[in-house]
Amino acid sequence: MEGITLTEKSSVIKSFNNNVVLVSYKGMETILFAKGIGFGKRMGDVIPENTVVEKIFNLQDKQNAKNFTTIIQDVDNSIVGLIEEVIYFISYELGEELSENIHVSLTDHISFAIKRLQRGEAIENPFLIETETLYKDEYSIAKKAAEKLEKAISIKIPEGEIGFIALYIHSARHKGTLSNTLQYNYIFKDVLNLIEKDMHIKVDKKSLDYARFITHVRFTIERITKEIPLNNDLLYIIKEKYPVAFNTAFKVGKLIERALKKAISEDEVAYLAMHLERFKRN
């Protein structure tokens, strides 16, 4: 792995473990990764210019830096160091930089989850199937990250928690906030409840039809949010041929409108109706 050379000296703020330190570098709080870089280091120690490290994460946003400092005061250094190594692993596996928010959000989330698991508390995730379906890459990497955590702390990480980690990864990849990601998952859940109640059916959440449907809803939400128009040449045929499915799709559209505070076209509704007709038949 190609190293990064520090172009000026840095001052240690905190050493989390032998391989991860928080320093002041170029006027910013910065996390450095390198084998042995944290060994024996204390606050105020100097890491000299030209030191070669594996990875640098800068906390450029002052609020993020402040929040991170607050969190690490209440979390064991070894846990913070472990979570930072997991974040480094995630970034490396994806081959891309992540939003700096993840150092605050994921550290806070995982440290609390570990405490809950140590107390024997169950972690329930109502969005697990949707997360696995919509964010396959993030979920796959979250599973690997969970294995690293399990090996380090000897606690089984349940699937529900893996799903939550995947959501944080997705949020960090797209420079968004977890609240947006969760909002969309709440929309999926509300949409499913409406469909099952209105059409008097039970949808198999592990079926291919369901996977196709929520993927379609995901892109529907993106189009509506970005105001990208969609043309459906089969609109009037679908309305005539599948009146029950179209009626429910219309209600789904209104639900999405209320959630996003943006209008949804009949063309979009017709595409939703086609998916609902598959549910009805199966």
TrEMBL record:
Residues 74-179, 180-282 form the PRD domain. It comes from Clostridium amylolyticum. GO terms for molecular function: RNA binding. SMART domains: CAT_RBD. Pfam families: CAT_RBD (PF03123), PRD (PF00874). This is Transcriptional antiterminator, BglG family. InterPro entries: BglG_antiterminators, CAT_RNA-bd_dom, CAT_RNA-bd_dom_sf, PRD, PRD_sf. Gene3D superfamilies: 1.20.58.1950, 1.20.890.100, CAT RNA-binding domain, PRD domain. One of its GO terms (biological process) is regulation of DNA-templated transcription.
